[in-house]
């Protein structure tokens, strides 16, 4: 009998030690995953439709609160899966495509990059429905603030909306950096504010150390968009790729450092410092808006895919298939920029919440990391044109992978409309 008890005691000790070891291994990974993703709650119907026709039911996927019977699903973590029905517009049917992203027009020979959709690991992400989007935004306004990738996103949205109705140009100026469009049939206004750095910036030297310009950034002064944004119901903020250029940083009218400016007596604070402070200033400006009752979206960094050299040194993006999520990982400067955005977003969301502000996170970084096949590369101009453009591995072909940004946007707006904000898309990390 004593021998039996001794064996049981040894077995229990072994199980306890095994559990401890497993928890030690798993727990850090678990919390790393939880701290870097945005969870969305879903209750998936038994017959989810993937059609983008106006007949799609908005109830095909239902967001639920944590207290309900829904299960947690990170909509921004998954894989690209084949979608033979895509694309849902063409470069010929959409007039809004910027020339440099009109890949089919300029001879891109393959079409496989068009035939994919984003599939979250544990749920479905409905494809964009233009009629549904316009109905949700009836009587509302939406503004994009950011660089040319933000414009790339907006033009993708316009291509989708063209399937239902066409807008009227109601821009306040002829400057293409600031455009407004009115979808009069739905009293919906769409606007774009070009602001590559989000803060005030002046090109001090057209050439600079790398022949890409040298920019003076006033890191504590938001750009001109900040005085025009309070009237909008939804604001999508993004930035990133311009911070690789040489910059001199000023705060309180005094130079505090730079990024690769190669100037004597100016400390190199790196691009990461400028990136962080620019987002901090932008969020501070948004939190300080008087009477703003809208919703602020941060669209996270979309990685470029230069291979075989830097963007200005022969690099190109020639892949023709998406990557699987076990074939690459977010690292290096991509990870650093992403983490800075996440940290500044959490900071702003916490401060804004106390003032009644609403922040939402559109975390597209993982999805776009897996799409090295979706860039224009050399197909942004005719081969015989005398242009000084580099291979474009930053922007996205239209139609193309960037269309998925609008799948995310529509679904987040659907949840916003239903009031599923506290547990599903608040931007808080669980």
TrEMBL record:
Keywords: Golgi apparatus, Membrane, Signal-anchor, Transmembrane, Transmembrane helix. Pfam families: PC-Esterase, PMR5N. The keyword Transmembrane applies. Residues 72-124 form the Trichome birefringence-like N-terminal domain. It is found in: Golgi apparatus membrane. Residues 125-412 form the Trichome birefringence-like C-terminal domain. GO terms for cellular component: Golgi membrane. InterPro entries: TBL, TBL_C, TBL_N. GO terms for molecular function: xylan O-acetyltransferase activity. The chain crosses the membrane at residues 12-32. It is a single-pass type II membrane protein. Its main location: Golgi. Belongs to the PC-esterase family. TBL subfamily. PANTHER family: PROTEIN TRICHOME BIREFRINGENCE-LIKE 19, PROTEIN TRICHOME BIREFRINGENCE-LIKE 9-RELATED. This is Trichome birefringence-like N-terminal domain-containing protein. It comes from Dioscorea zingiberensis.
């Amino acid at each position: 009998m004593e021998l039996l008890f001794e064996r049981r005691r040894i077995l229990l000790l072994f199980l306890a030690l095994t559990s401890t070891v497993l928890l030690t291994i798993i727990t850090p990974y678990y919390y790393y995953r939880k701290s870097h993703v945005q969870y969305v709650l879903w209750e998936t119907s038994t017959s989810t439709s993937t059609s983008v026709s106006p007949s799609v039911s908005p109830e095909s996927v239902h967001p639920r609160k944590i207290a309900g019977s829904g299960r947690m699903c990170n909509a921004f973590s998954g894989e690209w899966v084949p979608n033979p029905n895509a694309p849902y517009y063409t470069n010929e049917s959409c007039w809004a495509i910027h020339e440099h992203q009109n890949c089919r027009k300029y001879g891109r020979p393959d079409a496989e990059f068009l035939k994919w959709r984003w599939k979250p690991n544990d749920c479905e992400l409905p494809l964009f429905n233009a009629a549904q989007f316009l109905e949700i935004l009836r009587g509302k306004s939406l503004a994009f603030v950011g660089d040319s990738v933000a414009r790339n996103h907006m033009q993708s949205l316009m291509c989708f909306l063209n399937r239902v109705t066409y807008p009227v140009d109601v821009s306040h100026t002829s400057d293409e950096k600031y455009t407004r469009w009115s979808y009069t049939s739905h009293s919906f206004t769409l606007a774009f504010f070009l602001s590559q750095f989000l803060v005030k910036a002046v090109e001090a030297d057209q050439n600079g150390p790398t022949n890409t310009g040298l920019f003076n950034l006033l890191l504590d002064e938001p750009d001109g968009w900040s005085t025009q944004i309070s009237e909008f119901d939804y604001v999508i903020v993004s930035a990133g790729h311009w911070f690789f250029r040489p910059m001199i940083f000023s705060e309180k009218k005094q130079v505090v450092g730079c990024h690769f400016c190669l100037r004597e007596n100016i400390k190199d604070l790196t691009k990461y410092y400028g990136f962080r402070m620019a987002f901090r200033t932008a969020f501070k400006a948004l939190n300080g808006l008087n009477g703003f009752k809208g919703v602020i979206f941060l669209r996270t960094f979309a990685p470029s895919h230069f291979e075989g050299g830097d963007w200005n040194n022969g690099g190109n993006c020639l892949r023709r298939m998406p990557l699987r999520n076990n074939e690459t990982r977010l690292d290096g400067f991509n990870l650093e920029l992403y983490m800075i955005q996440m940290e500044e977003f959490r900071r702003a969301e916490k401060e804004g919440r106390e003032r009644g502000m609403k922040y939402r996170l559109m975390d597209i970084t993982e999805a776009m990391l897996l799409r090295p096949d979706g860039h224009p590369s050399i197909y942004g101009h005719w081969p015989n044109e005398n242009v000084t453009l580099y291979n474009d591995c930053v922007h996205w072909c239209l139609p193309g992978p960037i269309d998925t940004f609008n799948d995310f946007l529509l679904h987040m707006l659907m949840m916003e409309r239903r009031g599923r904000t506290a547990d599903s898309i608040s931007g808080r990390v669980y």
